[in-house]
């Protein structure tokens, strides 16, 4: 399913002959996804895992905003997902991150399942997001990260699910660190890619940013999504929260 | 010695007539050709000789810190950095108790960031030593914050502190960072980042003066200035891998005006002009390109270039443009905000904002950064380059 990946830190973008790249870009739709949440919940690791297919060795605090991208194939169409990884410290989000809410196509809220405060801060993040991006029809998902740390789980899945339901968001619990969950992280972003693709079949994303087309999107209309939901349900039956 | 005399001495280290009036008229490419090579042992001897004098000639030490190679070695830095910052290392206040350090409002954030700062320590360092240094780093940061209630920790401050810790050790690092935090770093340590943002607004005017086409391209791409945020607030500690290169920059910044890091940012952007102009004019592409600093840039040349830009376009000349830049961003944001409201049919009264610096919409006062207002008021900005920087 994945055809090509790239990170802004390397020069993959310039490897192909220019004319070929231009031709491909003309066909390729680009979707911008912003990843937000408290400091140290694993935003950088999640985006790195998806864009580079591995867990980073040494991650540092993100200062301002980092950018990663990956091109995926969704039902035969090449789609570029641009992930904006934001700093968690409040001072940055108050004055620096707002620039990046512009023209965003989807929002990923991340909390740390081992840290209740990161979950409790979610309404604040969502409220702020609504303030910057008043179009509430933009797809939003909630991700509980670090569920490999089974002994330390502090945020109950049912609680998180209720919260997600109240905001009409799908919930995913995962781990950027756990290699066995690598496909799971992929599938989360692929779910978004499917939603974005199917939401806007005709128009380029940047033209439809504030349109109401998203009203027609149903959460369950992707195979990935249904697969994940099922997987999660099964996991819950096994009394494992992740 | 007057500031003009100080500046006139600079050619001795940068090559002929580096900062002369004639040289200032030359364009950036010519200045990059100026020689940045130097004789290390010769410079070392000159520095030793200066240090042997009593009283020590601080102006000469500043010049050594700026000129190619900087202060050459960490042993010299240990001795010279405190002199440049006018810090008395024999009377450093004792460390407060653990409960005071750990009780501070920013303690948890500091801990999170220091625990993740593995990259900042030399590769191959023994784990126990590194863990000990990380504990010292937390204490060092907390000591400054506890010492000044008005200062707020920001992510990236730890990148600055670790550099000082690795070069001079915890106690002296505390004394140095404590001083810097009230001066060079003060604007970054407000409760919010409005003044940091304002400093970033100097980048486009400097770039534009040297290369209008590049400024226009960057503005059209809507890349903004956040790509250079970590450069500015960590003094490049966050984005460079080689500690030797980082401390070389620190020599330069300690000896110069607090806005110098933004001039260096402009020098880096200008140096990469061809690369930027050849890329797609798109926010993501340009951000991706610019936010990663190639590790093999000619950093000595870029330091010269930054000094050159400072003299050619002193902050006082740019202050108005920087404010204008900010206003444009504001009106653009407001326009977008109105569009959004239209789409969502939310009726919110868009209060007219009468003040230039009103980013959070709460404060109605004109806010300037401490350093930009200083330089804007002083008309002879060149003098400010070396001289206005008196520690006391």
From TrEMBL, chain A:
Reactions mediated catalytically: GTP + H2O = GDP + phosphate + H(+)
Gene Ontology biological-process entries: Rab protein signal transduction
Membrane-traversing stretches: none
Database matches in InterPro entries: P-loop_NTPase, Rab33A/B, Small_GTP-bd, Small_GTPase
Pfam families for the chain: Ras
Membrane-topology annotation of the record: Lipid-anchor
Cofactor(s) listed: Mg(2+)
EC top class named in words: hydrolase
Keyword Transport included in the entry's annotation: no
Record's subcellular location: Endomembrane system
UniProt-listed NCBIfam families: small_GTP
Family the UniProt entry places it in: Belongs to the small GTPase superfamily. Rab family.
Entry protein name: small monomeric GTPase
Native organism: Potamilus streckersoni
Lineage of producing organism: Eukaryota, Metazoa, Spiralia, Lophotrochozoa, Mollusca
Automatic annotation (TrEMBL), chain B:
GO molecular function: GTPase activator activity
Span of domain Rab-GAP TBC: 71-257
Signal peptide stretch: none
Membrane topology: Multi-pass membrane protein
PROSITE patterns for this protein: TBC_RABGAP
Superkingdom: Eukaryota
InterPro entries: Rab-GAP-TBC_dom, Rab-GAP_TBC_sf, TBC20/Gyp8-like
Keyword Transmembrane helix belongs to the record: yes
GO biological process, one term: Golgi organization
Record-level GO cellular component terms: endoplasmic reticulum membrane
Subcellular localization: Membrane
Keyword list, A-Z: GTPase activation, Membrane, Transmembrane, Transmembrane helix
Keyword Cytoplasm: no
SUPFAM superfamilies the UniProt entry points to: Ypt/Rab-GAP domain of gyp1p
Protein name per its UniProtKB record: TBC1 domain family member 20
């Amino acid at each position: 399913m994945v055809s090509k990946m790239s990170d802004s830190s390397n020069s993959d973008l310039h490897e192909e002959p220019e004319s070929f790249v231009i031709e491909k870009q003309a066909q390729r739709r680009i979707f911008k996804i912003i990843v937000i949440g408290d400091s140290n919940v694993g935003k950088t690791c999640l985006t790195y895992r998806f864009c580079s297919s591995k867990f980073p060795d040494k991650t540092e605090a993100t200062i301002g905003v980092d950018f990663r991208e990956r091109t995926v194939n969704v039902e035969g169409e090449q789609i570029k997902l641009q992930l904006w990884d934001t700093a968690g410290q409040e001072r940055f989000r108050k004055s620096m991150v707002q620039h990046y809410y512009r023209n965003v196509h989807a929002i990923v809220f991340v909390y740390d399942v081992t840290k209740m405060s990161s979950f409790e801060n979610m309404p604040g993040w969502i409220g702020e997001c609504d303030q910057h991006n008043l179009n509430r029809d933009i797809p939003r998902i909630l991700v509980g990260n670090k569920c490999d740390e089974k002994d330390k789980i502090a945020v109950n899945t049912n609680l998180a699910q209720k919260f997600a339901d109240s905001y009409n968001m799908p919930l995913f619990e995962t781990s950027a660190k756990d290699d066995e969950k690598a496909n799971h992280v992929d599938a989360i972003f692929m779910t978004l890619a499917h939603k974005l693709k199917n939401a806007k079949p005709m128009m380029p994303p940047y033209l439809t940013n504030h349109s109401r087309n998203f009203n027609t999107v149903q959460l369950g209309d992707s195979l990935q999504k249904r697969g994940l939901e099922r997987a999660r349900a099964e996991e819950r039956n096994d009394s494992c929260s992740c | 010695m007057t500031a003009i005399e100080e500046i006139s001495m600079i050619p001795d280290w940068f090559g002929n007539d580096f900062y002369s009036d004639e040289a200032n008229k030359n364009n950036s490419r010519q200045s990059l050709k100026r020689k940045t090579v130097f004789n290390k042992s010769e410079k070392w001897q000159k520095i030793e000789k200066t240090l042997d004098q009593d009283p020590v000639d601080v102006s000469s030490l500043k010049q050594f810190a700026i000129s190619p190679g900087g202060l050459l070695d960490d042993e010299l830095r240990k001795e010279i950095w405190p002199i440049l910052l006018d810090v008395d290392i024999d009377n450093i206040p004792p460390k407060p108790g653990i409960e005071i350090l750990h009780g501070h409002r920013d303690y948890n954030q500091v801990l999170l960031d220091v625990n993740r700062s593995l990259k900042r320590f030399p590769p191959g360092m023994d784990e126990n030593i590194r863990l000990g240094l990380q504990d010292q780093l937390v204490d060092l940061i907390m000591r400054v914050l506890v010492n000044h209630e008005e200062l707020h920790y920001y992510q990236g401050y730890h990148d600055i502190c670790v550099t000082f810790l690795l070069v001079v050790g915890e106690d002296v690092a505390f004394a140095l960072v404590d001083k810097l935090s009230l001066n060079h770093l003060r604007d970054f340590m407000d409760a919010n980042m409005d003044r940091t943002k304002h400093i970033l607004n100097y980048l486009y005017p400097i770039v534009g003066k040297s290369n209008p086409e590049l400024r226009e391209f960057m503005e059209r791409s809507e890349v903004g200035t956040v790509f250079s945020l970590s450069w500015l607030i960590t003094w490049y500690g966050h984005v460079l891998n080689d500690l030797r290169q980082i401390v070389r920059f620190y020599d330069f910044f300690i000896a110069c005006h607090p806005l110098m890091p933004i001039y260096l940012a402009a020098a880096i952007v200008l140096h990469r002009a061809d690369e930027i102009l050849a890329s797609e004019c798109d926010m993501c592409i340009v951000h991706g390109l610019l936010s990663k600093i190639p590790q093999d840039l000619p950093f000595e040349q870029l330091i010269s270039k930054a000094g050159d830009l400072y003299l050619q376009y002193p902050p006082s000349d740019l202050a108005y443009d920087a404010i204008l830049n900010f206003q444009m961003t504001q009106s653009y944001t407001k326009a977008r905000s109105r569009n959004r409201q239209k789409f969502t049919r939310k009726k919110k009264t868009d209060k007219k904002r009468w003040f230039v610096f009103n980013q959070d919409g709460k404060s109605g006062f004109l806010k300037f950064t401490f350093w930009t207002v200083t330089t804007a008021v002083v008309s002879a900005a060149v003098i400010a380059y070396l001289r206005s920087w008196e520690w006391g």
